[in-house]
């Protein structure tokens, strides 16, 4: 069970500003993305034992041997998906819920799916916590689902954006089918290491652009 630190101490706020400077130096430019990272209390998304490390630019462990992605990675994937305001977004791999929160902060309607029952339960609870909701400019739209992301969420398709936050070897056609016209899908594609890839759907055809190398936990079929 996860225990959280619900206070936003001044040194956390200072650390967030430091973190934003760091990811700006790494090349993240979008002012809204930087604002989201500067505002959201990442330490709410990890166990209290990691709260003091929540503003290091690193991934951290969460339950079930999974990780909360590195802030730079969250910012990078988010920037590739922009603009997201008013867009319907499918996130595969809810994990801690931090990436979903960043997208919702930016005004997206986020549908996020997780294959681990316990993570799904813990994170859906977190995302309804009044203490967290206070950090958003408007009430965030985040809908959590328990299930296998390889299948997407057919009942909610089409999506304007799809973001995959676990390493995937190949994008299944099902997910391209759930992407709307002019939609974007961003995913770390690969096995031992992954290439961040942005897919764009235009007139039903998929165009592909690649970015840097990243390391994610694997996307696994089925639920637990
Ligand atoms: N977006 C998360 C990153 C979590 S790590 C965050 O901001 O914290 C990746 C997550 O993907 C893990 O929680 C893992 O359980 C989940 N995952 C892996 N395979 C999946 C699948 N087939 N369907 C849904 N979620 C999956």
Describe the protein's topology.
Layout lengths: L9 H16 L5 H9 L20 E2 L5 E2 L2 H11 L6 E5 L5 H8 L3 E6 L2 H10 L3 H4 L7 E6 L12 E6 L8 H5 L1 E12 L3 E9 L2 E10 L10
Parallel strand pairs: 3-4, 3-6, 4-5, 6-7
Antiparallel strand pairs: 1-2, 7-8, 8-9
Helix pairs in contact: 1-2
Summarize the structure.
This protein is of the alpha/beta class and 224 residues long. The chain contains seven helices and nine strands; from the N terminus they run ααββαβαβααββαβββ. The chain has a single domain, classed as Rossmann fold, CATH 3.40.50.
Outline the structure in words.
The protein contains 7 helices and 9 strands. The protein is an alpha/beta fold and 224 residues long. The protein has a single domain, classed as Vaccinia Virus protein VP39 (Rossmann fold, 3-Layer(aba) Sandwich), CATH 3.40.50. Strands 5-4-3-6-7-8-9 form a 7-stranded mixed sheet. A two-stranded antiparallel sheet has the order 1-2. α7 links the parallel β6 (159-164) and β7. The protein is globular. 42% of the residues are buried. The mean pLDDT is 97. The chain binds S-adenosyl-L-homocysteine. Residues 66-69, 92-93, 95-96, 98-99, 113-116, 119, 148-150, 165-166, 217, 219-221 line the site of S-adenosyl-L-homocysteine.
